[in-house]
Amino acid sequence: MRLTVGGVLVYAGIVVLLVVQTVRLIQMDQLWADGIAFTPVCLVAVVAATALMFLVGAVARQPLIDGDGPWFSTLGWAVVIGLTGVGMAITALASYGNEAGVWVTGPAVFVPFWVRKLEESYREGVEEGLRERS
């Protein structure tokens, strides 16, 4: 199953939000007060990897949750959930608080499922319309 234009636009919107979050984390002075430390680098890497997953899905027009296709299409949802869990754990363990929280990756977990439901509803509507025309 390939993504429709709407699905690609939703994935692209999530990519933009995740890139903004990555840039925001890189520019945040509080994270880098002790120099380059392990936890801020990991947090930036997790958010960037999540953005990369959605970018690959948008460019390839493949959903991150699908039974057939390449690895990112069959296991993409699990990778996004895992990255979100790691990002939230880093934020909680490092006591960064809300200002450095992973504010986009939490809701991004639900996007592949939501887009899949929208795509299925769209395809069912198209098929029903074609049946009625015949």
UniProtKB/TrEMBL annotation:
Alphabetized UniProt keyword annotations: Membrane, Transmembrane, Transmembrane helix
TM region(s), chain numbering: 7-26, 38-59, 71-94
Domain of life: Bacteria
Protein name: Integral membrane protein
Species in which this protein is naturally found: Kribbella qitaiheensis
Lineage: Bacteria, Bacillati, Actinomycetota, Actinomycetes, Propionibacteriales
